[in-house]
């Protein structure tokens, strides 16, 4: 079986089970690469290249590519920027409206390619640079403000807490794992909240001690995170305080620095 593929639509759901009724555990965006592990007539079990995440998706949403195209890292450097209009136009004239942080494979002279299919890129794509992380990360995060919370979401039409920080980091040249509990395994520990800096990630646990939430520090007293929607809230040693609800909503477990 030729098992290398790339997402050919703007956003595709990854599901827990091979059924349209099954829970969406994540999404892949235009240009994301996956390896197909199993295939039925409609469904395929995939693992993503960018964050090694497994799930089921509709095979029709993928385009088969060669081993060479799959492993050509240089071809997947350009991303769509943090703006609303990231339209690409297929050769038949139809449009795809892409989310920020979508990959534009083989971008060159205003065009990109999904397999052999050519798309005209109307926006100005860019190659993210980790060197400028601290300069740009706050503006990137604030672009997503008011985006509704959506379990498994990775776009500005709906995003979950770990998908939010993953997208913000990706747009600034840093790769993160998919889920908050996985992300918390990486990075360097910041010992005290007072030492937290812009761009650090704060992780929060539930009553059982499992990490279930993540947000990005704007300072040592403010955090931006996806809870109901992407919002900015005060944070102290106890956790996140929601002024609207007049209570603490998330209990602080650990702060990690990735850059």
Defining key terms:
single chain, 259 residues, mainly beta, SH3 type barrels, endopeptidase fold (from Nostoc punctiforme), 2 domains, six-stranded antiparallel barrel, five-stranded antiparallel beta sheet, globular
Description of the molecule:
By secondary structure, the chain is mainly β. Strand 5 and strand 6 (54-58) form a beta hairpin. The protein contains four helices and 20 strands. It has two domains: 4-121, SH3 Domains (SH3 type barrels), CATH 2.30.30.40; 130-257, endopeptidase fold (from Nostoc punctiforme) (Alpha-Beta Complex), CATH 3.90.1720.10. The strands form five sheets. The protein has a six-stranded antiparallel barrel with strand order 15-16-17-18-19-20. It has a five-stranded antiparallel β-sheet with strand order 6-5-4-1-7, with no helix packed on it. A four-stranded antiparallel β-sheet has the order 9-8-11-10, with no helix packed on it. The protein has helices at residues 67-71, 133-143, 161-170, 180-183; strands at 4-7, 11-15, 24-29, 33-39, 43-48, 54-58, 62-64, 87-90, 95-97, 111-114, 117-121, 154-155, 158-159, 188-190, 201-205, 211-217, 222-227, 229-236, 239-242, 247-257. Residues 131-259 form the NlpC/P60 domain.
What is this entry, summarized?
With 259 residues, this protein is mainly β.
SS element count, helices: 4
Shape: globular
Strand content: 35-45%
What is the CATH superfamily classification of the largest domain?
Answer: endopeptidase domain like (from Nostoc punctiforme)
What is the helix fraction of residues, given as a range?
Answer: 10-25%
Under the CATH scheme, which architecture of the largest domain would be assigned?
A: Alpha-Beta Complex
- Chain oligomer state: single chain
N-to-C order of helices and strands: EEEEEEEHEEEEHEEHHEEEEEEE
Low-confidence region ranges: none
Strands in their spatial order, largest beta sheet: 15-16-17-18-19-20
Please identify the structural class as seen in this structure.
mainly beta
CATH class of the largest domain: Alpha Beta
Question: What Rg, in angstroms, do the CA atoms define?
Answer: 19 Å
Domain SH3b: 1-66
GO molecular function, one term: cysteine-type peptidase activity
Keywords: Hydrolase, Protease, Thiol protease
Domain NlpC/P60: 131-259
